[in-house]
Amino acid sequence: MPDATTALSVSELNKRSRQALERDVGEVWVEGELSNVSRPASGHIYFTLKDDRAQVRCALFRQRARFISAPMRDGDQVKLRGRVSLFEPRGDYQLIAEAVQAAGLGELLAAYERLKAQLEGEGVFANTRPLPFPPRKLLILSSATGAAIRDVLAVLDARWPLADVTLIPVPVQGAEAAPAMIAALGLLNRQARLDPARDAILITRGGGSLEDLWAFNNEHLARAIFHSRLPVMSAVGHEVDVTLADFAADMRAPTPSAAAERLVPDQHALKRQLNDQQSRLQRAIERRLERDSQQLDSLRARLRHPGEQLNRQRQHVTTLAQRLTRAMQQTLTQQQTRVAQLGRRLASQDMTRLHRAESERVNQLNRRLENAMQRQLQRQQARLTSAARELNAISPLAVLGRGYAIAQDEKGQVVRRAQETTPGQKLSLRLGEGRLSVEVKRRLSK
User: Fold this and answer.
1) Which spans of this chain does the record mark as coiled coil (predicted)?
2) I need a labelling partner for 262 at 20 to 30 A (CA). Which of 37, 172, 434, 441 fits?
3) Strands (E), 275-431
4) What's the structural domain count of the chain?
5) Which range marks the domain in which residue 291 is found?
């Protein structure tokens, strides 16, 4: 027994169990009956596969579920290819489905699944080129007598009568079908080099059994479609039928009629759009004409004949000239009246008396000016005397006059401390009156 100290966690136990199942059992084919089929919004399919003695939970994930052509219903007997695994969070033993087929189809479906996986791994299903819309020259590979070509031509004629269609009749069932379609694809691609207007290929046939459609599961046909220089649309069988040719083509349509609808526009819808655009254009033109008519009427109402405009301007100029003449005459009259008044006032004045009065006024002003100048001179002299006293009080010369001296070295710097001198140094002393040149004999600390 293992030691309790090495006990596994539940997560580790489930992880080891899953790895053992996937390694030791791996991928298997299992046959049984479907039950509890569930399709949540995620797109995955969950169900139970059972027989009369046991059952196993199964999951078919969305990326694989979209390739399942047959519906999956409770009670259906199916063969399932999948990987045995374990869902670790819940510890559920389960089968992860990769492919599902109705029981009884046998080896055909098994071969289909193997070839599909091989081609998908090689990238043969990677074409996604857009088809021209509408194509200039559409090349159709189909049976000349089948229902599919009749449906396609009827839809093309109803939707787009201008379609340029070339039918290349080929067998679409039996052993000779795939080689014939491969040869036709090669021929059409070679001719496209000479006629660039050929720009799209449609491969189509009506519905049938798996055996009837088997030619479209041919490996070489799928490769020929993949390598086609011209983009290819495939429309084989009914909506539930999916062939390798559908996967290899650039675009798949669920039915021949749907292929025709996707290849060309609907003339009736275009006519309706054109009529709508024409109506909108007509209404826009009418609104523009109405707006422009109103603007024209407004401009016409404002427009005047040049002669009428000239007469109006001439009348305006005449009016201005008359007003100017009257204004000049009125101003001249006023000035003449004022000159006469001034002349009368001047004549009535005694010039001698006026001269004496003005002379007396000038003398008074001169006396006032002399008095003001004298007072101002006295005030300024007093301020100057006061400033001189203050300046003398703070002047260094006044200090020197009281017996002090200023010592300066050879560079003219003032010596303030004895420590700043050396014995033998020459100094200049400035006194209250004159200067002395001295030599330092000895420094004293006090």
Assistant:
1) 267-302, 355-390
2) 172
3) 406-408, 426-430
4) 4
5) 272-296
